Amino acid sequence: MSKKIEVCLTPALIDLYDIEQSIVVVIDILRATSSITYGIDNGAEAIIPVAQVEDCLNYRDSGFLLAAERNGEVVAGYDFGNSPFSYTREKVNGKTVVLTTTNGTKALHLAQKRAYQVVIGSFLNLDSLCHYLKSQDRNVLLLCAGWKDQFNLEDTLFAGAVVGNLRQNFEHFDDSSVAAEDLYGLAKGDLRKYLYKSSHSHRLAQLNIEDDVVFCLQLNLCKTIPVLEGERLVALKN
Asked: Which family does it belong to (predicted)?
């Protein structure tokens, strides 16, 4: 099979892609997919992504941890938001987390409707993810969560890192893949410095969570690949 890799720059464009037989990688670097990867790697039994803050309330009596973020901030009354520092082994090991975020969980639900498989990508698990995608006889769509359906830099940079890693294993690329790879080539020497240009970086800076940004740009801290099974994100077994 001649495999193709494509980059969807925003969830608003996902309907343009044929993904019924594809592995879709959902990307929300700052911060949902980084935190999900870190949480599953730290022993979380599962993370359940839900679309709305109110949906978390359906799990209030379940004993699960409830995590809700909107516009970069923890929603009042919830256990935590989507900072990776909330997903340490001490906090999540053996537990299930119900999570809703501004962009990442929306992208997950859009992918879930049609994709053959949905997995989670972040700089934290870049090598493990790429190794898995190389081993599968499937097309790949890299779905950037963006910011409220608009393009963003950090998700596109990660998509470019994946494209560069997989170039020898896939035969067909779209123009957004080429653009993402070129952008990553410009930024990879100092990702944090490059992302000072980004709008979301400025948003997060106003919330005084620079440590989160730096953490999410680390390479290969984790080996786990979260995969969506039913409504639950769990560690991929391969």
From this structure: Belongs to the ComB family.
By the 10 Å C-beta count (0-12 exposed, 13-18 middle, 19+ buried), 221 is classed as: middle
Q: How far apart are the first and last CA of the chain?
A: 21
Q: What's the CATH number of domain 4-229, 3.30.70.20, 3.90.1150.10, 3.90.1560.10, 2.30.110.10?
A: 3.90.1560.10
- List, for residues 188-213, the tens digit of each pLDDT value: 999 999 998 887 777 777 878 889 99
Give the separation between CA 8 and CA 219, rounded to whole angstroms. 22
- Which strand (E) or helix (H) includes residue 70? strand 65-70
Average confidence score pLDDT of the chain? 94
Instruction: Give the predicted TM-score (pTM) of the model.
Output: 0.96
